[in-house]
Amino acid sequence: MEEELKVIVFKLGSEEYGIEVDKVQTIERMMPITRVPKTFSFVKGVINLRGVVIPVIDLRGRFSLPETEYTDQTRIVIVGVDDMQVGFIVDSANDVIDIKRDAIDSPPEVVGGVKARYLRGVAKLEDTRLLIMLNLNEVLNKSEIVQLESIEG
């Protein structure tokens, strides 16, 4: 029996990305974000989610993709990275799928404008779509995590 991975699918522009379900804590609608001075430009600020202060990152900004207006489809995907909660702003998140581990190939140098180091791989889905799998440990590097920990509640 092939090992399957449960993945949350989200979109940035026309590209579909995936994060393993066990790394995602919750998906929230867009909410007011409090700006924090002297942070990286892709750090939009912090949100207060049920009494917990969580740093929020715009994945478009992180991946040097053009910014767009937030819509009613915009979501904040709250993930756990190294014992810390971080919110990722995405264009939409509306699917959970199972993919076979052996359907994930190592990433090319750049996919959809995103550098390979941020990616775990590219999964070929049965309906011919490609799903770009994020490597959460690289989306935030060590110095960025230290900075975010200093603003986390």
Automatic annotation (TrEMBL):
This is Chemotaxis protein CheW. InterPro entries: CheW (IPR039315), CheW-like_dom_sf (IPR036061), CheW-lke_dom (IPR002545). CDD domains: CheW. Residues 4-145 form the CheW-like domain. PROSITE patterns: CHEW. It comes from the Bacteria.
